[in-house]
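Anyone? Bumping this.
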Amino acid sequence: MEEYFHSVVLDKDRCNGCTNCMRRCPTEAIRVRDKKAIIIKERCIDCGECIRVCPYHAQQTQLDTLDKLKKYKYKIAISPMTMYGQFNLDKDMNKVFKGIKMLGFDEVFDEGYAADIITLIIRENLKNNQQPKPLISSLCPAVLRLIQIRFPSLIDNIIRIESPMELAARLARKNAMERYGLKSDEIGIFYITQCPAKVTSIKNPIGIKNSHVDGAISIKQIYGDIVKNSNTVEKIEAFRTASTYGIDWARAGGQSKSIGVDNYIAVDGIDNVIKVLEEIELGKLNNIEYFEGLACVGGCVGGPLCVENPFIAKSRIRRLAEKRNDEIKVSREYAIELYDSGFACWTEKIQSKGAMKLDENIVEAIKKIEEIKKLTSLLPGLDCGSCGAPSCRALAEDIVRGYSKIEDCIFKD
Amino acid sequence: MNEKNSIKLEYEILQNDFTRAGEASSNIKKILKQLGIEAKIVRKVAIATYEAEMNIVIHSYGGIIKVIITEQYIDIYAIDKGPGIKDIELAMKEGYSTAPNHIRELGFGAGMGLPNMKRCSDEFNIESTPNGKTEVYMRIYISK
């Protein structure tokens, strides 16, 4: 079961089988059966496109509530880089962080601080990286799962360095244990999230055995309370630890800029990412050094669990970052130490997932391809979606896989 | 070889059609993934067919890419009509290219096409008649 845990789930009562999500899904993971959408678990990459397009809000993310905080003695919230884009620039972010703390946390950790450290680590890593080019950023878990499922030949290109969320959680836990003499299980770490794919990564991480994050609460869930709380703050504490380099990771291209690579491509929007990964796989982009692929339009600021409009949030991050009126506060030596000791690196191999495979036996698979070709020529090619599959070819595949029958096509008699 | 247990694919490639170039290789790649063929092999076939496709687009008057997939190997034929290759030995050298400037400006014509195709395949053959047919044959084994 654990293997296919997904944060994206369907609320059957709300779904009326409209096919919007099915048509939008980049991995053809959704079908409509008996007027309800179903998600094919092996294919879902938790990109959240279905959540975004569902007019009935039937596609949702499995999240925790603040109730879960009670389980822990010491509670830490990790505030994401995207938080900086959710408020007007004249808003004091220390008040925002305090507003988060007032929800019942003992501490708020700025994820952008971890992004600062990873910025330094990647700068170091690029100097003698021997992996095939272009290197692929490990930031976006939806893109990583997309690669596992659709582009396994590019797994070796993924840079084996942790994402800011995971490093933030590890650092926060270590600090709390050292500072207060707490046991690991007394500490509860909650990621405030813009992203369903990050939620999946907590239960089912990529590149490591177990995540240090214990729960996830969306920005949407607590936004109103943060606003209310932050307006009552009088005594300001200094929570913000991120530099503009780390904060810049919240928008597409910001990561590459912070790292300081010149020869990079930053692509946002899952369909665009797919197109460029196709080109990388054909060997067309071997001369590019770094590929930053982000599933959401605008980058993480476009995450479906954000409140602010992605373009407004992106513009705020840009204005903040372009000032570059600060430097990363962490020392290079400290970052290198975290890198050399493996503290900020992946330990596990990234597995390819043959979710597109038609059969374990190649001879059988060949026969099935031939059948699909035949069936596709019999279908009208309208891709109308009425059969409950996203295209005529997908229906042909479903028939061959034994999930549908040709009579499902409303144009066939 | 049992004819029944093979897939035949054929794609028409048009001269100078850069917008559609890559379609055939992407399509072939998708089918190989559905067959569950190992990622490394898929990438080799993808690169080999893409380079072949581009060669036809750039250098010929048009042609076809034919692919035959069996349980043991993948055969790729790139056949075109055009000016042909005068000196095959020279054309196989890395960095040698006859692509005109306007093609190089598009980022193609670096003289790596044929060498790349050869590097990706386990068996490779090229035949060309001046002002006639050029045929490249490549075989990539699925399992050795």
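Late reply, but here is one note on the structure posted above: The first strand of chain B starts at residue 7 and ends at 14.
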